[in-house]
Amino acid sequence: MSNFYSEKPEIMENIKLKEEHTLRVCKNIVHLGKLLNLSKNKLYMAETIALFHDIGRFEQFIKYNTFNDNKSENHAVLGLKILKKNRVLSCLTNKEKEIIYKSIMYHNMPELPDNEDSGCLFYSKLIRDADKMDILYVVTDYYKKRKIHPNPALEFELPDTNEYSSCFIKDILNQRIIKSHELKGYNDMKLMQLSWVFDINFFPTLNYIHQNHYLDKIIKALPDTEEIRTIQKSIKNYVEKRLISKI
Ligand SMILES: [Fe+2]
Asked: Residue 118 has what pLDDT?
């Protein structure tokens, strides 16, 4: 990471942002893994995936000046190229490498493939949860600072208007995950982040999101309209049902 440190504050800020994100995702995944009673070896596997899941982000930002994969390249694929080129995981078995590579590859896909083996899917679900826990922290914390210190990289350089795409309201009401390549504005990005609630795999993650009021914080940053109040109710119902049934 330190290879990418820069004297330019706008670059350094975003390199640091991803460095700190990575370290928090490592902590999140270990915490989550412990709550799920994973063995020591499985915790090491999970932590390794977290440590390298965003390794492509640094080169991506330096090369393209954006974190938007649609305007640059898929940062997970880029990360895998870096890991393989530098033989970072050469001391691991082929099976371990395969699980780590695939979990990184799948961490930013809208949905997980259903034809994958259960071991690989388990780690993929772990990293997706641990990653979302931190992204929701980062974006809701950003809403507080945004007026004083805007950072276009955290908004995918999308236009900030009062508009949002009505099709995404429908997606949320139908519990569908919104895909990043369809975003037209910054509010759409907030709706996508709300829709991630339908892609939370483990109860402790959902509980963590609920206790930190991340979803309400995103709602507050959206325009106060009837549609937004409707999705707020719908999401609240969904979360409450899952929390009660502990799934
Ligand atoms: Fe990522």
From this structure: 95
